[in-house]
Amino acid sequence: MNDDDAVLICLPVSFGNPGGFDDNEQGPCSRCGQLVCWRPHAPPFPRVCMDCFHAEVRATGGDGLNIAYTEDTRRDLLAYALQALAAAEAAERKRGH
Questions:
Q1: What is the pTM of this model?
Q2: Please, what's the largest Cα pairwise distance for the chain?
Q3: Strand, helix or coil at 9?
Q4: Which of 20, 21, 61, 69 could hold 73 in an S-S bridge, CB 3.0 to 4.6 Å?
Q5: Sheet strands side by side (includes 35-38)
Q6: CA-CA distance, 74 to 60, in Å (whole number)?
Q7: Cα separation of 51 and 34, whole Å?
């Protein structure tokens, strides 16, 4: 990862308290100023809200997008993806019966 252009994708505070963490940090999106939140252990890269992230993906297809993350985030995303996959497979099996 080239740290010079990495961004940290953050949820808007308007989403409520993602994960229910009392120690989430808050600040403005570095692109549009919308109030976003992130975990205190997140790397210190520019914070970008989901709206700006989606706009960039629509505009570029994600080419060259450099997203910062921590090992905790990688682990959590992998666990979420595996859980979602298991749920989808269970639903598929249920439909097949």
A1: 0.66
A2: 52
A3: strand
A4: 69
A5: 25-28, 35-38, 8-12, 47-49
A6: 23
A7: 9
